[in-house]
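hey m, so remember when u said the tokens were messed up on ur end? i reran from scratch. heres the input so u can diff it against urs
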Amino acid sequence: MRRLRLVPYAIVVLVVTACAGGPPPDANSAPEDPAEANARLGLAYMERGEYDVAVTKLKKAIEINPDLAQAHHYLAEAYQHLGNVELADKQFRRAISLSGSNPALQNNYGIFLCRQGRFKDALRHFARAYDDNDYTRQDESYENAGLCALRIPDTARAERFFRHALKIDPRRTEALNQMAQLEYNRGQYLKARAFLQRLFDLGKSSPQNLMLGIKVESKLGDRQAVDRYAARLKKQFPHSPETRSLTESEHP
């Protein structure tokens, strides 16, 4: 499954990949409230990939203020990265009980649930995010719902979600990519071509969508387009499995 996207919580961006440069801020640079200070420190360590340290800071925040929803949310994400599913779920549910109307929290819990194969529950939480008309990231929640629906699999429902995402933001690359694949799978090659062209016009290419372009153009009988995509695939991604597969098919 494609990677589902975490979205910001409150005013602090929740990024769970390592960030570059400099040590985490110390408590003196954090907000004056000690619980919020420790929560922000926990987030900073989580951004660096130091999840064990993050857990310590976030537990401290919760010890000071057990009702600080963002600390429970961050702790849930930290536990998820450490592979402790049970504790992650507990912290997500606690955060929701304290701040259930927060759409970013609903989105991120939906991601967690989908990863655990709890698709029905996941889609319900995504809906709580994208149904919030004040939420500025409805498109991401629709896209995440589509990716989750594909795992059921429920392609008709996934398509509806992707189309909603693209209606809000026509530049959503994953939704375009998935729509191209769905149209190809149902034999709608001209429609698949159109979605791929929109994707490539954004400058977004990958071994997977270039290979899909080759397949689409082969079905449409456009040999020149096939050759163009094949050349791009070999040049941009020479060591990809798709390039190896293409080369093997050309030279069996």
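this time it looks ok to me. Residues 181 and 192 are 7 Å apart (CA to CA). if urs says something different then somethings off w ur setup not the seq
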